[in-house]
Design brief:
The chain is α/β, with parallel strands linked by helices. Helix content is 38%, strand content 20%. The chain has a six-stranded parallel sheet with strand order 1-4-3-2-5-6, sandwiched between helices. Strands 7-8-9 form a three-stranded antiparallel sheet. It binds adenosine monophosphate (AMP).
């Protein structure tokens, strides 16, 4: 496994690579959710690259950039055992040299959900992913359904900018009690960890209601809100039942919808989503 930090090293390494390349971008502190992307990339490509970069421009001034979990030694052990070919761990100056001023914005899709809650976040995500796609020129890019809006935006930018890349979205990996795995879960204390189950519980109840014929989006939103309200450690930041492609809020769910929530548990904001679908 080649562990690289500079762009010039990365270019030199890629030059001698033959066969297809799958890229998994991450912010590190890896868990089974990330690993599911790495495993999918390993199965479908001759070469697998993982980037580890906590991207400062996708964090707002009041957000958790400084305390975002970082664990490079453990990450490298895990990636080594998954037979990853290249790990790129650039520093901030490598990605954003002095005087940096070029950004990518996916206009409409960035206005909803996390984009509305975190101004500039989706611009930061779109910019770093574009830079990674240019640096690696992979054949396939692996993303998680856990960050549904991010995945939607990146699919749009790949199409809009004409990158010849397949974008593959992998299902959300959950803990045994349903909590979606996230690097931020490590910041929950035991009581908060128990309370965090409420995210999946509320989404599951919406799914059951939809399966039983509830198609009114506002009633589905209310149902989720009511489940979360009961949990004293949880504060609902938003609930959305939206079109899966445009992310626009729906009045009624006809066949499919993306149901997304952001919930603050203690000081940690967690997001999760579920796709409501006619079975
Ligand atoms: P992050 O390190 O949080 O930026 O995530 C890197 C990639 O892993 C993104 O494409 C995420 O959507 C994906 N990911 C994070 N958590 C999960 C999960 N629980 N299941 C599947 N994919 C995930």
């Amino acid at each position: 496994m080649n562990i690289l930090t500079s762009l010039s090293e990365l270019r030199a390494n890629l030059k001698y690579m033959s066969g297809s390349l799958g890229l998994v971008p991450t912010m590190g502190s890896l868990h089974e959710g990330h690993l599911s992307l790495v495993k999918a990339a390993r199965m479908q490509n001759d070469n697998v690259a993982v980037s580890i970069f906590v991207n400062p421009i996708q964090f707002g001034p009041e957000e958790d950039l400084d305390i975002y979990p970082r664990n490079h030694d453990n990450d490298l052990d895990i990636l080594q055992s998954e037979k990853v070919d290249i790990v790129w761990i650039p520093d901030v100056k490598e990605m954003y040299p002095d005087g940096y001023q070029t950004y990518v914005t996916v206009e409409k899709l960035s206005r909803y959900l996390e984009g509305a809650r975190r101004p500039g976040h989706m611009r930061g995500v779109a910019t770093i992913v574009t830079k990674l796609l240019i640096a690696f020129a992979p054949d396939r890019l692996y993303l998680g359904q856990k960050d549904a809006q991010q995945s939607c935006i990146i699919k749009r930018l790949v199409a809009d900018l004409g990158f010849a890349i397949d974008v593959l979205i992998c299902p959300t990996v959950r803990d045994i009690d349903g909590l979606a795995l996230s690097s931020r879960n490590s910041r929950l204390n035991p009581d908060e960890r128990k309370a965090a189950i409420v995210l999946y519980k509320s989404l599951s109840e919406a799914q059951t209601a939809f399966a039983n014929g509830e198609t009114d989006a506002s009633r589905l939103r209310t149902l989720i809100t009511d489940v979360i309200r009961i949990e004293k450690f949880a504060k609902l930041l938003y609930v959305s039942v939206s079109d899966i492609n445009s992310l626009k809020e729906l009045h009624y769910v006809s066949d499919r919808a993306l149901c997304s929530i952001a919930v603050k548990i203690g000081s940690v904001v967690l997001i999760d989503n579920i796709v409501l679908e006619d079975s």
